[in-house]
Design a protein that fits this description.
Blueprint (H helix, E strand, L loop, with lengths): L2 H8 L11 E3 L12 E3 L2 E3 L5 H13 L3 E3 L6 H4 L5 H17 L32 H5 L14 H20 L4 E4 L21 H9 L5 E5 L6 H7 L5 E8 L25 E6 L5 H14 L5 E6 L16 H12 L5 E5 L5 H17 L1
Parallel strand pairs: 1-4, 1-5, 5-10, 6-7, 6-9, 7-8, 9-10
Antiparallel strand pairs: 2-3
Length: 367
């Protein structure tokens, strides 16, 4: 079946009418222009680009989905899952960086850390706020790849607003909503950012949706959502399950994402990691998605972290998942028949990105 025929089939409901998933999108995503990454000390082009947002918008519009802009949100809504210190840092980082003179000397226009407060460095003393913004960035950043530029905060806040708005639509009775956001969010934790993520959009949606009772987050991005896990690791109100490339095969986020990580305290057993090896194909991946649906079956409402970078041609992962398997994953999650909020995460093959997103959403709706 050709790509065009598949996309045409997936955008039709059983009675031949175009489907009506509510899509929340903000053009402010384009204000975030990371202009590359610094990886092992080398500046590389990077893949989290504004073209991603435009590709998704084009595809969901062509599929007949209704697209709306988000409502405004307050800072105290961000601190339901993030520390006030992280929010304050992200809001002020660019202005502080510019005042520091770094754009002139040494000529670095983007906010990037150069020093990290390793716990043993502190000799047991409390962490204090350094005067240097270059050092202060290391209090919050988990890597050097996630750069902050002049429009980053506005885009990050707009992404968070999209996720919260999608959750509010679900609270109001909508069955399926999709926050078409960038930058993504699932690597951002309560007190840190990284992995091209600044605020955790899926976590913000899940926290909002906890008003409806138990929530389950199903993460099918190619990489483990370490930030989402960290935010909800000690609670059973929000369950987190993820299928992702095995970090022990050398893949980001490296430090966490293993099967034995099951939660702590009240959250014991409410965390499920399903790492898969490089080269995993459709059958094995779908089997793991089925396990995630069983794990999530007692939740009242679902959040899906929709990374589509498991796609076979994606440069950011070694998984070999097809468009059809993304559609099937949507069907399996849809069969749970719960109000569902989908939040965009990764996916970096721009000319296939919209096709993959629509394949999943149409499967979800049809399921």
């Amino acid at each position: 079946m050709t790509r065009g025929l598949l996309l045409g089939r997936l955008t039709q409901s059983h009675d031949g009418q175009t489907m009506t998933v509510q899509v929340v999108y903000s053009p402010d995503h384009a204000r975030h222009v990371p202009d590359g990454e610094i990886w092992v000390g080398v500046r590389i082009p990077g893949t989290e680009l504004a073209d991603r947002g435009e590709a998704i918008l084009s595809a969901v519009s062509a599929a007949g989905y209704r697209v709306i802009e988000p409502h405004e949100i307050r800072d105290d809504e961000l601190t339901t899952v993030h520390s006030p210190e992280l929010v304050d840092f992200l809001r002020s980082a660019q202005a502080d960086w510019d005042r520091s003179g770094y754009p002139i000397d040494p000529g670095q226009e983007k906010v990037v850390p150069y020093s990290f407060p390793h716990p043993d460095l502190l000799c047991g003393e409390p962490l204090t706020r350094p005067v240097s913004v270059g050092a202060r960035t290391g209090m919050f950043a988990m890597d050097t790849m996630t750069l902050i530029g002049p429009g980053t905060w506005e885009a990050v806040r707009a992404a968070a607003a999209c996720a919260v708005t999608a959750a509010d639509l679900a609270l109001g009775g909508d069955r399926l909503t999709y926050a078409a956001v960038r930058p993504p969010g699932h690597h951002a934790g309560r007190t840190f950012y990284g992995g091209a993520c600044y605020l955790n959009n899926a976590a913000l949606a899940a926290q909002r949706l906890s008003l409806m009772g138990p929530v389950a987050i199903i993460d099918i991005d190619a990489h483990h959502g370490n930030g989402t896990q960290q935010i909800f690791y000690d609670t059973d109100q929000v369950r987190y399950g993820s299928v992702h490339i095995d970090p022990d095969a050398g893949y980001f986020p490296h430090w966490v994402g293993r099967e034995h990580e099951r939660g702590t305290g009240r959250g014991q057993g409410a965390n499920l990691n399903l790492p898969v090896p490089p080269g995993t194909g459709d059958r094995e991946w779908i089997d793991q998605v089925k396990r995630l649906t069983v794990f999530s079956s007692e939740a009242n409402v679902l959040v899906v972290s929709l990374g589509v970078d498991s796609f076979a041609d994606d440069p950011e992962s070694p998984l070999l998942i097809s468009v059809e398997a993304h559609h099937r994953a949507g069907q399996l999650i849809g069969e749970l028949d719960r109000p569902t909020v989908v939040v965009q995460e990764g996916g970096y093959v721009v000319d296939r990105l919209g096709e993959l997103v629509v394949a999943f959403l149409s499967g979800l709706d049809g399921g």
